[in-house]
## 1
Amino acid sequence: MTLHNRRQFLTGAVATVSGLITARESLAKVPEKALQSLPEKPAAKFDLMTMVKKYRKIDSHAHVYFNSPDGDAVIDIADRLFIETLSISRPMVPGGKGDPKEFIEANNLVLRCYKKHPTRFLPQMTLNPQFQKESLDEINRCVDAGMVGLKLYNHVKMNDPLFYPVIEKFIDLKMVILMHMGIGKARINYDSREPANVSIPGDIVEAAKRYPEATFQLAHLGGGIDWEDACKAVQDVPNIYVDLSGSNNEARIVDCAMKYVGEDRLLFACDNSFYQGVGHILAAQLTDVQRKKIFFDNYNNLLKKIGRNVN
């Protein structure tokens, strides 16, 4: 051993012994009961991707876009997170006319993506009830083409009488009506993105109580809405399901939803914030059974009503 290496060895040895003595002195000051509670060995390393792969997943609220007209980009991300099926739609853009030409074009995009990935996508239509006849005609066309539900945006409030014929049609079809919720607090500041006729939780509650036979999905609890207000508003309305999607995932959202809504009416969804959508369910204080319900079973049970469930 060279002089240089010997010095390194001795220096390291002294430091090690000094550290052990310091640790022993520190432990001597710790109460015996506290020492008994210390783990005997380090906790096992947490493997996040094992957890991600563990659960089957149906994303109940996803979108496709005109800049990726075949849906491949969505499938790519879904594959990374082991999301096997996604309910897709293409709502009309904020500030648009929302006329039949616009919503038919949006639905055609969804159908093209569904045709490309028929085993991965569940297509949903969009409408504007301000155009009553055209909307009802479009429902028939889209159902014949294989669509399984409805995604609405902010053209008409959910409890507006213009929606009644559409809701009644979807009762007959036994399909889910997914409704966008206004971004902001229960008393939101309306702007071009969230006009005065955007729905808030009280509106979907009123519609759901009027039509208890219908099935409603309140969109993106993690999307910037007043999530605590939303959970409290829908807690006693059993035909409203709540999707947990969104990019604004504060720590208590899932816990609050579990408290007021319960494990049987919560739906896994991403609204294309895929990593957040998966992550905050894995991070929440849920049992294995509860995660399975939210990730897969609850939405699949709704699909069973129309014979489109995932096997």
Note: The longest helix spans residues 3-28.
## 2
Amino acid sequence: MKTVVIVSQDIVVVNLAEGILKRLYNAVIFKGMQPALDYIYNTIPSLVVVDIELDDRSTVGLINDLKDDPIFNQLPFLAVLADHSSLKDLPALFVEDYLWEKDLEQELLTRVNLAILRSERIVEINPLTHLPGNISINRQIEERLERGVSFAFAYADLDFFKPFNDKYGFSRGDEVINITGRIILNVVKNRQQQGSFIGHIGGDDFIFIMDIPLIEETSREIIDTFDRLIPSFYDQEDRDCGFIIAVDRQGNRNQFPIMGISIGITDNRHRQFFHYGELTEVASEMKKHAKKSPGSSYIIDKRLDDDSLKNPSA
């Protein structure tokens, strides 16, 4: 069931909206945008419905700041406006749609359905994690390269995800991918609120972009959090054993350890990149080296342009 966040201090609006949406959506209620932010950052709902006065500059600012973030700029917002509101102030609010309070009962469900349907048609948003996909990822890299700013780029994917998915099924596999996206998003945004970026390439592959001094500690925290949470997705018997029995790519039954996460990191401090493909290729190389280590790990590329591959540092 898709989640719709409802933000309102008006108990009448809350009860009406919740009653209309509860058959089709998981409605989560907040009295203001500030308390709703943590939930939005952690969950990325399908839609946010905001009951707002257009002269409420604090709430308008919070919404606009969120929409200015490349992670959340395609999260749809539906504004519920008081009947006395003046539309001349609406252009200052970055929302996809609005409706008047008097039309709430008749139009809310239709507007919510349409807003979510439009957002799901945007191909660069991953439908599982709601994180930006390849188009946005490539655009973020190219824009940074064109501006000549220094940044770090990390490529992460899961170790032994396929055996887990084969044994426990796609539903539990999707849960693991979803929680991995949440872990990366939360850790990155907690350490760098502005200027960071998280993307979902697809499957169990993720990327994140940050300021260079923050990337290593962030990767450590992602690994620590992942390793602490992921065992809970295994049955107790498998957790006790520390491995599962599954069929490998050659069709043989084999032992596979508890999943880990491998992160390859590079930056443009020591290397000059001209295209996003060059950057992602180097990070992918580092990720492959990280995968050679048992358990979760990260490797940072600290080579100069003419250094050999034997010099990456973890």
Note: The first helix runs from residue 11 to 21.
## 3
Amino acid sequence: MPTLTRRQVLAASSLAFASRLRAIPLAQFRLGVTTDEIDEDVLTAAKFLREFGLSWAEVRNVWGKYNTAQPIAQIREARAIFDKNGVKVSVLGTGFFKIPLPPDTPEGRKTLDDQWKLLDGAFERAAVFGTDKLRIFAFTFKGDAPDMAAYPRIYELLGEAARRARAKKMRLAVENVGGSYVLTAEQSAAMLKAVREDSLGLTWDPNNAAHGEPRPFPDGYRKLDPSRIFNVHLRDYRRSDGKAEWTAVGDGEFDNLGQIRALLKDGYKDGFTLETHYRHPQGKMQASRVSLAGLLKVVAQI
């Protein structure tokens, strides 16, 4: 029998996983990958997704810059590449409000003006990509704990952002992330309770939440209103010396299967994104390849 090359083995493995993904009885299951965790070249990322039979992508950096820093002509070129390869954009990743909370001073108000301009540009780029969802943040802080007195103003600004999004027929999905005023499920739930605008929801990242709470699933997830979750990030982690460290999916301790099943049971119909994060000696594309293979094994069990 002829000896298979390493490329042929990888291709066969990818096809097998893609076949298993298509076989699951979840016609509306939308799984994608954050493209710059594959490669910042759009065509390279699109081909990777199609190799695995995936047709969704979350877009953050393209061709070496945040998408909001790229001219519209480049965004249109990226959209054309995705279209040619059968890939749709589920979420536009932005850095909106991923800054320290500006003081209510002339200088602080200028900083906010710049953020509103960034949001306007993000709306324009999201429309080009054909998505109505933008991932945003809830400001950052320095030190060990957030300033509790800052939350009313943060909620007020998020509410204003949500109203602007509604006017554009867009949705904003605040990501819970380390160093932000919204990290844990409890902080996420408090934000959603305070900002009632239906154009504002959550990018639920249970692995990020592991940096601030012991059991983001199932304990943390139970605190959330599933109807306000617009986007879900998946990866895996293990704890070392009390800290969460990223791993390939399947090599850590997070219950991805339980989390996905719970979301679907609760009526979640939006997308899931592998946001790889963990590092592989052969680079980020290989890290995404290994982690995606692990995630597809999880998906096949749903």
Note: Residues 31-299 form a domain with the TIM Barrel fold (CATH 3.20.20.150).
## 4
Amino acid sequence: MTDVRDSDTGLPARRPGAEASAPAIRQSASGFPVRTPTARLVQPGGRHRRPVPASLPEGAPALILAVPSAGEDGLSGATAEIATILRVDNPALDVRTARIDHGGRGDPCGIRAVLDDAAARRPAGALSAVVVPQLVTPHLATVRVLREAIGASDANATIAEVFNTNALLAEALHIRLADAGLARADRVRMFSITTSADGIIVATVGGEEAVGFANVTAILLAARLALPVFAASLDGGTPTIEDAAARLEAMGVTRIAIAPCVVGPEVGPAAIETAAAAVGAKCAAPLGAHGNVVKLISQAYGQALSQLETLDGT
């Protein structure tokens, strides 16, 4: 079960005549957004971001969820659920999912094919897509592949990443730990449980940069739980899961739990379980389609539109 319906994604709904009444990307005579083709990474805003525009213009760019998948089923499960929620909550938004396939057009669900299809459905020169990597921590290799795919495609697209979101991630990790009986439930839920962990490892992918980002989330999670929490890498970065476990054990922690700070598809199915077994830890579920993940993706899309409007001087 996932916690998805209690979250307002905050994306705009299309209204008749919205093009004339709401802020929009610079438009051509036909009423569609126009930008010089580019593949630019939109820098994240601060905690208090500009709200998503109240309405989407006709021909608004697609939101492409770009999924770095360690398996063949990366577009099912959590990814499919996230896309469905975004579509239901925002019927005006063109939501697509794509595998990050390192180039090539052979896969109809690969990022190149999805980018080209989005571009074909919009006027030449119009911003055709905002690509949001389905990741909650930085991942330089993924961004590099996406830039190459955009450059090799016919699409005018930009990349928007889900960053500066530590408080929402800490809340989601807390709930996943509570669901697994590894932490006391959030006060909002008005009940408590007996916990089976007294130290937490926030596990992520993306190397040392991702761990550095997750350190802030770990601090906020520690404050929520009143327990020691350290961030660690699942994919070869430092500190490793073993390093973090050694730090906890040096503090006298005997019951360790792993909180995977991942959506799910970006890490191999057995990687989390293997890491947990290596240090004798219990493990919560990945974030999956938690409501906060959906919210962060929609905010990334809205922030991209806001940044582009600012750069256009509109």
Note: The chain has nine helices and nine strands.
